[in-house]
Amino acid sequence: MNDQPSFEPPEWHVSPRLMRDYVALKIDMARSASVEQHLLSCPNCQVALSSFVYADVSSAANLDALWLDVIDAVDRPSSGLVGSTLRLLGVSDHVARLIAAAPAMHLSWIASVVLVLGFAISYAMRPYGSDALLLVLAPLIPLAGIGTAYGLGNDRLYELTKVSPLSSSRVFLYRSLAVLCTATPLTLTAALIMRLDGLEAMGWLLPSLGLVGLTLALSTWVQPLIAAISVGTTWIILVVGVWARSARFEGIALETTVIFQPTGQIAFAVVALVAAVLFIGRLGHLDTPVDSHRGAW
Amino acid sequence: MNGNIEITGVTKTYGKTLVLDDVSVKIGPGVTGMLGPNGAGKTTLLRIMATVLAPDSGSVRFDDTTPTSPKALHDIRSNLGYAPQEPGFYPNFTVFDFIDYVAILKEMDDRRARHDEVRRVISLVGLDDVAHRAIRKLSGGMRRRTAVAQALLGSPSFLLLDEPTAGLDPEQRLRFRSLLSQRDDHQAVVLATHQTEDVTALCQNVVVVDQGKVGFNGTPVELASSAEGRVWVSKGADNTAVLTWMDGTGRHRHIGNPPPGAELVEPTLEDGYLLLMGRDSRVETEAVA
Description:
A: mainly alpha
């Protein structure tokens, strides 16, 4: 007696209705697997299947297009969490990729922002803590992101970006906006957690915009990192200076100093506006070849 | 564009170091090899041509366009492919991701058309099998091919390649030569290299750069001819020659005056190049001729 299994075609066949449901993905996985297993060994059902597929696709040209879609879907670069989120928000595919590639857009950036804000919150929650740390740190957070978003030494593809027809200023601007869009809501959340209200809750916003504007404007002369460090250092000196001065005459609460009062807020709004005008006026300098002697990059 | 590049009086200094000294060269369609030792100024000249760096003085003209206005810069960069010596990669990018990203920088906004072009250049450099592998996991030769592939995007009129064959094995080098030989007739390819074999195999023109100056500008045959009557082989070494070394056959090759009993041979491009460099130090190697 021969124990070898026979390879005769199976006696049952996939019914037209089942085949139609299989092609239309309307059957469960177990039945689908059963149909596929049967199709592998049944030439009659393979022929029957092709008629269903062609009926659905309508032409060979469409099949080619379908195949290209498959290849494209396989090749499509993974955009990561940042890229996917941006696309969900309606940002076009290529802009999302330009933004997501920035070092400042990696998860480590968001984690760092959360860590810094968490530190500010825990400081405020201490028995003798205050909101001062948040007010000082909040404007510095976007500077750190913008300083590392683009430029020689920060962006590994800086040289290739520089020689590309796509304007470097656009890349820089997209990434700076993305930094602002991540840092601002997180800082706002921190302010809410700390239960700040009124001017106190938003006291960091206009100084932040002013410093960002200054950094962007300065970046048309020097590397963004140098611009960010210069502006950030100036901010710390200003805050500590004003705070020390007011501590002698008025009190020690940072939020009561002129910086966070209406006069200071208006001054920072003006700074932000002037810096924005300057930045727009000098945008073209980001695209010109690097002049190592005149400081342009 | 017609693939003509005219460099006029380009000077560049880094601090007090003069890197390029009043360089003037005309480059036409075809493959031009830029030969020179390390530190000669080739990369700086290529970066100026690629519009990365601004010269201290002088100009570079691409056909009728000089990169002086935003529109002119955009036009030139739209027709330029540039592979720097160290392109830099984002560590998590695959070959496909990287080239697709550069394609976005080249304003190829239509995703399907862009992906088709990315697949085309990946295939041209023979990286289909590793297209979805992270670049950090690739060998040096594969990374070099990746850098060349991105420069080929959009078949640019001006292709500037800095040491494109460094780190390639002989088979890959052959493939690269075959790739460049399929170029468009109107395309100007500039190849900065210190490997004379590449120039011999590929280039219609050769520009020798040494210590920031152009020492020679002509055809490879003309460069080889410049050593006509100055190249000898003999059994023994010769201390009076400009250069002398032992070749793969065990005989000594001399450039300069004939040593006793030496036999005059046809010069190669390498002989012409070495003679031009005018080194008075003797080289004793077992290099294959």
